């Protein structure tokens, strides 16, 4: 017996190429479902409590039905048996000429109809449910095993029960009771009261969860204020013990941060005065010392480098800029920054529009552009041309400072954004504290912008400051 070889290209249940698309679709469907789920503590907890309450109510309703159905079946069975017995007694004791009037009265007044059973009767059986099984079993126990049931006799709907005038009588009759007598008259009331209880429970759950989430939202807002350099209001130290402890710890932390910030400002003011004043005197003394010009130039350059490093430490220590945003003509700002460098003999090429105004923090932005120009001069040299451009790109304002220095390898860019880091291998000049790019990064973050460090075509580095918004004119 030969076996047919399996075609590897044919889709099979064990083929990974067939399972992979379905797996990806399932994951995508799962991600879509997760996006619709609540993400806050308030609604996640509320949804969990709501599901728990709904499940509990459903379970209790099933328990109630399970234990209530037998007693209800016995009551209904007793009512049906009483109707059948009364009907049988009335038919037996009534005079034959009055039986027709009796049947008419039963149908008109009580909705009870009686018909003789025939072999050709078309019957619809009763539904196979637990309440109906309990009801028919109890009726059959009292009326006899020969009792039959139906939900429709010929074309008439109702609850039909067969009976005999005498136990030994082979003739049977059908008695019909309206279905309304078997229905639960209080089902709607139970539904209304159950729904009201569920709504009240959900409202209570929402209030409980809100009492927990409100202090957490307040703490989150205060934490964002601390992150942006603002002083948040004191958090209320009340409520549950755990939340009160967290609020107390947060208030203590913000107080410590405020005192540390005040101490930092005091230290910075002292450093600015106590260090820069002696440096100014030292520079004056060097220039008036009568030493050879090349030595004086070298010492003055070192003093300027020390002063610049101190300035970088001060800038970095001040934290995020607190200056208010004001409309500034960026073209005029860049021209003002470039002019002192040109007077010093630095070759700076400007590529600027006629006018471009944008709300910025002028002093921090000037500091950021100056740091990038100083970096370009330090690593590319003052003889190599430095290009400063200003343009709008995709709804952003781009300030580009480009040089022809050795550049920065792409894998080192992120590291150089951190404070006190320098690229020793690519740029041989090791002067500076390594804070220039960190200060620029902080200034751009305060503006909602970004700093890009990209290799320049033809060699060099292109540092681009991107600010949101703006339109050139």
Automatic annotation (TrEMBL):
Presence of the UniProt keyword Methyltransferase in the record: no
UniProt topology in membrane: Multi-pass membrane protein
Matching PROSITE patterns: HAMP, HIS_KIN
Ranges that cross the membrane: 41-64, 190-209
Keywords: ATP-binding, Cell inner membrane, Cell membrane, Kinase, Membrane, Nucleotide-binding, Phosphoprotein, Transferase, Transmembrane, Transmembrane helix, Two-component regulatory system
Reactions catalysed according to its record: ATP + protein L-histidine = ADP + protein N-phospho-L-histidine
Record-linked CDD domains: HAMP (cd06225), HisKA (cd00082)
Protein localization: Cell inner membrane
Key word tRNA-binding present: no
Domain Histidine kinase stretches: 270-471
UniProt-listed Enzyme Commission number(s): 2.7.13.3
Domain of life from the UniProt record: Bacteria
Pfam families hit by this protein: HAMP (PF00672), HATPase_c (PF02518), HisKA (PF00512), RisS_PPD (PF16524)
Domain HAMP residues, every copy: 210-262
InterPro entries: 2C_sensor_his_kinase, HAMP_dom, HATPase_C_sf, HATPase_dom, His_kinase_dom, HisK_dim/P_dom, HisK_dim/P_sf, RisS_PPD
Principal location class: membrane
This protein's name: histidine kinase
Organism expressing this protein natively: Thauera sedimentorum
């Amino acid at each position: 017996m030969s076996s047919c070889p399996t075609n590897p290209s044919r889709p099979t249940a064990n083929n990974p190429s067939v399972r992979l698309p379905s797996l990806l679709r399932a994951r995508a469907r799962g991600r879509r479902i997760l996006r619709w789920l609540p993400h806050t503590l308030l609604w996640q907890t509320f949804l969990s409590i709501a599901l728990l309450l709904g499940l509990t109510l459903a379970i209790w309703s099933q328990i109630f039905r399970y234990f209530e159905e037998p007693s209800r079946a016995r009551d209904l069975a007793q009512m049906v048996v009483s109707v059948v017995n009364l009907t049988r007694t009335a038919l037996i004791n009534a005079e034959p000429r009055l039986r027709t009037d009796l049947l008419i009265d039963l149908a008109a007044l009580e909705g009870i109809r009686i018909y003789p059973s025939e072999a050709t009767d078309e019957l619809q059986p009763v539904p196979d449910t637990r309440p109906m099984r309990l009801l028919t079993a109890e009726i059959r126990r009292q009326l006899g095993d020969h009792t039959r049931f139906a939900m429709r006799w010929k074309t008439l709907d109702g609850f039909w029960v067969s009976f005999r005038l005498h136990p030994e009588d082979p003739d049977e009759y059908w008695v019909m009771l309206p279905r309304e007598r078997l229905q639960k008259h209080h089902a709607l009331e139970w539904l209304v009261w159950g729904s009201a209880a569920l709504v009240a429970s959900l409202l209570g759950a929402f209030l409980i969860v809100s009492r927990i989430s409100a202090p957490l939202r307040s703490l989150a807002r205060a934490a964002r204020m601390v992150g942006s350099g603002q002083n948040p209001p004191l958090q209320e130290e009340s409520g549950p013990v755990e939340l009160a402890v967290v609020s107390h710890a947060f208030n203590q932390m913000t107080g410590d941060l405020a005192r540390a910030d005040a101490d930092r400002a005091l230290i910075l003011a002292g450093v600015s005065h106590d260090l820069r004043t002696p440096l100014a005197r030292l520079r004056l003394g060097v220039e008036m010392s009568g030493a050879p010009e090349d030595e004086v130039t070298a010492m003055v350059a070192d003093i300027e480098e020390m002063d610049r490093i101190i300035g970088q430490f001060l800038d970095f220590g001040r934290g995020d800029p607190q200056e208010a945003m004001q409309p500034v003509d960026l073209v005029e700002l860049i021209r003002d920054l470039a002019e002192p460098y040109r007077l010093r003999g630095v070759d700076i090429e400007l590529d600027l529009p006629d006018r471009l105004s944008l709300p910025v923090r002028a002093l921090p932005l000037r500091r950021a552009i100056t740091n990038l120009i100083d970096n370009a001069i330090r690593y590319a040299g003052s003889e190599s041309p430095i290009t400063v451009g200003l343009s709008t790109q995709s709804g952003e304002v781009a300030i580009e400072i480009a040089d022809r220095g050795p550049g920065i390898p792409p894998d080192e860019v992120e590291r150089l954004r951190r404070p006190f880091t320098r690229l020793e291998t690519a740029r041989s000049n090791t002067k500076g504290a390594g804070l220039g790019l960190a200060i620029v990064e902080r200034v751009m973050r305060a503006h909602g912008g970004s700093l890009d460090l990209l290799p320049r075509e033809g060699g060099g580095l292109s540092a681009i400051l991107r600010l949101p918004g703006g339109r050139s004119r």
